[in-house]
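User: Show me a protein chain along with its predicted structure.
Assistant: Here is one chain, sequence first, then structure tokens.
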Amino acid sequence: MIIDEAHRIKNPNSSLSQVARVMNTDFRLLITGTPLQNNLNELWALLNFILPEIFGDADQFDKWFSMSGADGQENVIKKLHTVLRPFMIRRVKKDVACGLPPKKETKLYIGLTKMQQEWYKRLLRKDATELNALGGPDKVRLLNVLMQLRKVCNHPYLFEGAEQGPPYSDGPHLWENSGKMSLLHKLLPKLKAQGSRVLIFSQMTRILDILEDYFRLVQYNYCRIDGNTDGEARDTQMDIFNAPQSEKFAFLLSTRAGGLGINLATADIVILYDSDWNPQVDLQAMVSIAVSLQFYSILFYSLLYRGTFLYSNVIISLVIGPSSPYRSDETSTGLPLRDGRLS
């Protein structure tokens, strides 16, 4: 039995995982390019499918790799490498696709809008006592604060009460109150004018909702895939986008749902609106596109908010074709900039 996109059975309680486990097979092979999260149970589920007689007990597996402190974490990593080595063959680009052009990265600094600054400061003041606590803040509390600050950096409308209403109305405020949306409002018309087609990835489906409002307002045709899209609708959306002479200018995707098993090779621009905490998830989303566009050079544009905790919060990845007016064979210059800003 060979299972492609093997991340689909990382949940041992899923229907596919349970059905696959009861089938009698002489050999089993899993193929996946999707990174594992920091969750030993996902790794155990894959190893249990391959060799249930060795990796039979999830609790025992967790005990093998229990860790405490920095030394414990380092030992766990060494143990995992030792355990995985006999069962895993890892294929990396430099070994099997030497002809792929190298990636280039340019960092562009943008500022928070007035509304974003107000919400950012409001959150920090609200949690100042906890953040300044003796011995440092509680880990769960700190992660919650970071997530709230991340939402501010993405768009303040992610908070209830930030957008005026009801009634709610679409308008320039959609991009005027977010630094990232302001940049997209300048960038997308340039890309559309040159005939490019765009993929926009985000971690948050609510950001995709805001982007949908924006695309309807400016009358750009688009498709969308997120975690709530079923398999049939997913395939239909990809077929519509990839169809010859398709009128769809952009494809909105949640990074975890859209980066898995997609085929959108007709796009030549990839934008990561916000980055995952696990950088491998972003790489997976980008590689899934880059492999299909083997003759294009990929430029990565990192948009960084000055003065915020999340300097590497956004990566705008542009897949530049040979005929693109933004192509550069030297050090990546990318989009036309004026004093570090998009002109």
